[in-house]
Amino acid sequence: MASDESPHDDQDLRLAIQRLARRIRSMQADDVTEGQRAVLFALSKNGTQTLASLSEHERVTPPSMNRTINALVELGLVTREPAPDDARKVSLDLSSTGHAFVSETQRRRDAWFTTRLDALPAEQRRLLREVTPILRDLADS
Fold first, then answer.
1. Residue 2 has pLDDT above 60, yes or no
2. Which of 9, 13, 16, 65 would disulfide-bridge 55, Cβ 3.0–4.6 Å?
3. What is the pTM of this model?
4. HSE of 11 in the Cβ direction (CA atoms, 13 Å)?
């Protein structure tokens, strides 16, 4: 830590990032839990998955993922079909309603964020563009 920095600066930055992430996550198309939303976005990004692959991706146990999937199937957001290569496995994918949820959530988040960014002075927008790669590296670490 540089001599002109305080441990509180690090904490303030972390808390600001957490609050911003929560605010962005709150912009969603419907009422689902954070875990359910994560599964919907994983399916949207990665395509059809098995219960095991989703469990591993989300770092939860298969029984926990099964409960999440059951709720999403009941809401009509996810489909569950026998895997074409192994009848003992199940393929999970977004339904058309699930795709619509993800698209609408992304649209709402982008609109909210763009509106907030556009309201900032040009210098602040420039600084945010400069720090974006650093924040991406931190998120990916």
1. no
2. 65
3. 0.78
4. 3
